[in-house]
Each structure stands twice: as C-alpha cells, then as structure tokens.
Design goal:
glycosidase; 5-stranded mixed beta sheet; TIM Barrel; 2 domains; disordered N terminus; alpha/beta; about 625 residues; 8-stranded parallel barrel; elongated
Length: about 625
C-alpha cells in the first residue's frame, strides 16, 4: 500500500487501535451472489506455476495484469474520530469495504475495470474485517442498495462473487490485522502484531475455505509489507516468533492441505528492517533472502513471490520525509540503469531458471499520482513501467478505485454522482506509460514444462513436504525429518546444515503410485560386494528404490526415506563425496541450496539411492556421500 512520505512514525507505541469483538469463525461458506453481468473469460482456473511463469488450467501463460481494489483492509489513519472522513486516508472513509460502492453500481465498476484491460484484482482485507459483526452504514453502499444491512465480510463476499462472474481472477490479500491504514509503525507491521501466528493461520484457512467453491479465486497473498515495529525486525529463517519465512511456510501448507489446494500462494519479501537513521543498518531486504533460503510447498507449482516498488522509497530509503528520512537514494533518484539493477537484485533474480528459488515474481504494488509534478518521480514511473514491459512482468497497480478530489493515485476516480475520471482520460499523464505496459509484447499460449528444483531445510524443524509421506505418520519420532514434495526426488544434500535439494529433472515422478515407502536405518540393503563408501555407515534404498527424504538427530544422520520406482531402477552407480568440499556437477542446476556448507549432488540423469555418514571420533556425523545411479 502506498503511504504518504511523512506517514512513517518511528518513535513511541501505537495507540488508539480499533479492536472489534471477535465473532467465532467457522468453515461454512457463504455463497457470494451472482453479478448481473456474466462474462466469458479467455482463461480457465485454477492457476499454477511453470518456472517463472503463471499458467492456467490448460497450461497457457496467464500474466497477472492486475490492480488493487482497496478499502476492505481499512482506511482510518489511527488518530481522531473514526467517523470523521478527515481522519481516513486521503479523506476516504472506506467503512471497511472496497471503495466505490457508495457511488457506482457494482456492475458499472466491473465494466470500467474491463476497460482498463486488467484481468486480475488483488483484494485486500483485514483480520478485523473477518470477525466484525456490525453491518456497514447504508450510505457506504448507497449505489448498491442490495448490499444494505450486511457486514463487511458479507459485502466482501458479494464483491468476490461479482468479480468471479465477470471473469476476473481474484487474489485475496491479508493486508492488515486491524482495519487501519497501513504501512508505518501502526500495529500492523507483522502478521502476528496483536494476534498469534496460530490465529492468523486459522483466519487464512477460514478465508480459503470460504471461497473454495468460487473458481476464479486463484490466490492467497499471505501478508502485506512485513516490516519493523518500534523495537524489533522481522527476519527470514531465524526460527523465532518474528520469522516471516517460517510463518509463510506454515500458513501456505495449511491453506493447501486444509482449505483449498487450488490456490497460488503469494509470499511477499520483507519490506523493511532496521531504523532509518544515517549510520545505522536499515533497508529493504525484499526477496534477497530467498537466494539462500527459499520456500518449498506441498505443491511444487503453487509458489509466487512478490515485491512492492514506489518511486519515493528506495533500496535503503523508508520513503519518509522529516522523521525517518535518511540520505539514501530513492528509486526515483536512480538512473534507468541503476533502477534496473536494483529491481534485478531485490526481486527479479528469482525468475532465473533452474534454481531452488525459481518462481514467478509479482510486483503486487506500484503506482504514482496523476497530479505528480516532480520530474524525477515522473521519469521513474516511465522507467519502471518500461522495465515491467521489457521483462514481461506480472504486476498490480495501487490503487484501482478512489474518490475524485481525494486520491489522485487511483486509476479510476469517482465523484459523489458516480462520474468517472482517471487514467482512461486523455489528460492523465500516466496514460502513455500504462498503455505501453498493457500492450507490450508478452509470452502467451502454452508454456513448456521445465524441471523443478526445490530446497529442504531442517534448520528449526521438520520439512516434510510430501502429502503421501505425511499420510503415513511420524516415520522417525524425535528426529527432524525432510521429504521432497510429491513428484520430486532427493538429488542433493548438505554436509552439516541439514539442507537438501529435490527435483524432477530427467524423470517426472519416479514413485510407484500403489506402493509404500521404506525407512532405512542400517545397512541391510547394501548388497554383498557393494561397499560404495568403505568405512562409512551406508543407508541404502532397497533394490529399485530411490531417496525422497532423510532425517537428522542434531547434526547426525538418523534415517533415509526411500520410495519404490514406478519402473525398474537399477542403473550403474557412483559415489559422490562431499565431506571435504563441494561435489556437484559442473554448472549444476538448483543453485546454492545449502549456503556456506559443503554440498553433494547427483547429475540430472541420476537418482540418489543411498547416503553414507560416519560417527568416528573427530568427524562430523552429517551426510558425507551419496550413491548416485543413472536413471536409464
């Protein structure tokens, strides 16, 4: 969400938060009403990923050409009377529902959205909205009297249903905890600011279930602009209560296993860490931590990463003026080349093919005001939209709807009589850049399948991403366990970090569909004369089996998890040692899946059939060698 540069507040505690008594959330769905204007879309749900691209149910590229229809996340700025529009962002009281329903009939809004050319709507909500039992005032839905008497969630239902019927893809976005304008130090800094991670994940399961029967609800955008509060930073992988990596992993797997396996899971990078004072560490990590620690979900084709870019912020600039302002460059201060380098470094490296982090990158927020007169800001908007066009990027403009005379950032602005102005008008200077972005050449049609590479991390707990393995229960009680997502096989291991690498390169889904799995804890499957790691303990799969997982007790290897192949597996073998140095094929795909550790990896035309380790004095007890066999 865009914030006024002066809105970042970095001292003192946040006061005056609106706390609404929670109602009990249930899993029952409230079927959204139909829109009066059905629309035949040229794509089919659900969406999934193929390398750096999002694809539809037919395997065709679906580029997210999106905008943010805000309001349901809240608009109150946190001070003064909540009933006074002057105390709401840009003087716009959203009443906790998507903006514009007081001014334009719902089908009229959707018709205008189609004129923009967008195909997707990012639809923010707050956790407070989910639990509110108070109907919105009648004037909040003045142009849509059929919505009178409904709670914010019920109106959200109606909006979701109308967007679905009109052919738009809908991505649910948990924007705030409280219904308050985001994104300074405002009590909404983290997913668990003012609530537990458990409650946050429970709310996500509730929302995903609620719209599971609405086909064009295609994604769950887990949380908006995770950032520092007064005292603490979020982190990516430390395993504590501020670990955004772990929280996103937890919520994503719960959504896919308990609520709706059809959804894309959108994980935004960390928006801000540190205190913005010259001389102290501070900046926007964005997606850079994914280089060495990326997410692996139970469905290897559902992960999308996202990032936000605004001209008045910067790689190390909070976007503030006055308090919180530093001498770091803003994005609008960068040359065209410097901006491209920053975008590559902070986000778009994720789209590099053949890496454990490879995924689509969605710039789910960017924008600028139609009244902007600063030449640098205007140049930035042209440069950033050119970059998105040249890189065939997925994007979502902020915001979609606003009030005339209030929010000149909005693509479409409506006065109290429902008359529209905005980027579709010839006088809007943003129009040329917008049209270039919307019409630039883009990949379309079928997207060829590419190998999947995913990492496993047992840094702070289990990483069992196979649904088939989960269904068998705890296969090594007391140990940290890791298993590749269904359809992938284990192909690499770290020596001391407990990290692993999974892939389907060279062979899609080797596992037999009707057989079980074997937990190997000793050398019983090592054949006579088959000592491929002399002097080391060898955990080898049964004949015809291959590695899909492993477990650790501390640093020590505990067990190997093997699955039988769907076809005979008996290729020639070789030993890949990695106890004293890296041992991966030249130019190996997958990337640095065990950063700072020695790594071993089989070739793409091989599968791993065994792991060797030692417990002799003075040696590390982690994996030392892999038995790699050819696939064919």
């Amino acid at each position: 969400m865009s914030i006024a540069p002066a809105a970042l507040r970095l001292a003192g505690t946040v006061a005056g938060l609106v706390l609404v008594a929670a109602q009990t959330t249930t899993a029952s769905a409230a079927p959204p009403p139909r829109s009066p204007t059905p629309y035949t879309a040229a794509w089919s749900a659900p969406l999934s990923t193929q390398g750096r691209y999002i694809v539809d149910a037919q395997g065709n590229r679906f580029r997210l050409k999106a905008a943010n229809w805000d309001g349901a996340q809240g608009s109150w700025t946190g001070s003064g009377s909540i009933t006074d529009p002057a105390n709401h962002h840009a003087g716009q009281n959203s009443n906790g529902i998507p903006l514009g329903l007081d001014r334009v009939p719902l089908d009229g809004l959707l018709a205008d959205f189609h004129q923009l050319g967008i195909n997707t709507v990012r639809l923010p909500f707050s956790n407070e909205m989910i639990h509110s039992t108070t109907p919105v005032p009648d004037n909040a839905v003045g142009a849509n009297p059929q919505l009178r008497g409904r709670t914010p969630l019920q109106i959200y239902d109606a909006v979701v249903g109308a967007l679905n019927e009109s052919g738009f893809a809908v991505i649910l976005n948990n924007h705030t905890n409280t219904s308050r304008w985001c994104c300074g130090v405002d009590g909404n800094e983290r997913w668990n600011s003012g609530q537990s991670t458990q409650q946050w994940a429970d709310d996500w399961v509730f929302m995903a279930r609620r719209y599971a029967a609405v086909p064009r609800v295609v994604g769950a955008d887990l949380y908006n602009e995770v950032r520092r509060d007064v005292l603490d930073d979020p982190n990516w992988g430390l395993g504590d209560s501020h670990d955004w990596y772990a929280a996103a992993q937890l919520a994503a797997d719960r959504i896919l296993t308990e609520a709706n396996p059809r959804l894309l899971i959108v994980v935004e990078g960390i928006n801000w860490t540190g205190v913005p004072v010259d001389g102290l560490p501070h900046g926007r990590p964005m997606l850079t931590p994914a280089r060495t620690l990326s997410h692996t979900l139970v469905d290897a084709h559902k992960l999308v990463y996202s990032a936000h870019f605004y001209g008045y912020t910067g790689p190390h600039h909070s976007g503030a003026t006055g308090v919180g302002e530093t001498h770091d460059a803003r994005y609008q201060d960068l040359t065209r080349e410097q901006l491209a380098a920053a975008l590559d470094d902070e986000a778009f490296f994720v789209e590099e093919s053949g890496r454990h982090y490879t995924a689509p990158v969605w710039v789910s927020e960017f924008g600028i005001g139609s009244g902007e007169t600063n030449a640098a800001a205007r140049a930035w908007f042209g440069n950033v939209t050119d970059y998105f066009a040249d890189h065939d990027a997925d994007f979502a403009y902020w915001p979609l709807v606003g009030f005339a005379g209030h929010d000149d950032w909005a693509l479409l602005r409506y006065d109290t009589a429902g008359h529209r102005t905005g980027i579709l008008d010839s006088g809007d200077w943003r129009g040329a850049a917008w049209q270039h972005l919307m019409s630039a050449p883009s990949t379309t049609g079928p997207v060829a399948a590419v190998p999947v590479w995913r990492m496993l991390s047992t840094d702070h707990g289990d990483a069992v991403e196979s649904l088939r393995v989960r269904a068998t229960g705890d296969w090594d009680a007391g140990a940290y366990k890791a298993a590749c997502p269904d359809g992938l096989r284990l192909i690499g291991l770290g020596h001391t970090t407990g990290r692993g690498l999974c892939t389907d390169a060279g062979a899609a889904d080797l596992r037999s569909p009707d057989a079980g799995q074997t937990v190997v804890v000793d050398e019983r499957y090592v054949p006579a004369g088959g000592d491929w790691a002399s002097g080391y303990t060898k955990l080898q799969c049964p004949p015809g089996g291959f590695l899909i997982g492993y477990s650790l007790r501390g640093e020590r290897l505990s067990a190997a998890l093997c699955a039988p192949g769907r076809t005979p597996l008996s290729g020639t073998g070789r030993t890949v040692w990695f106890d004293r140095s890296d041992n991966r094929p030249s130019g190996a795909a997958g990337g640095d899946f065990a950063h700072g550790d020695y790594k071993g990896q089989c070739a793409e035309n091989e599968y791993a059939a065994g792991i060797a380790f030692t417990t002799r004095f003075g040696s590390r007890p982690g994996p030392d060698a892999l038995l790699c066999r050819t696939l064919h």
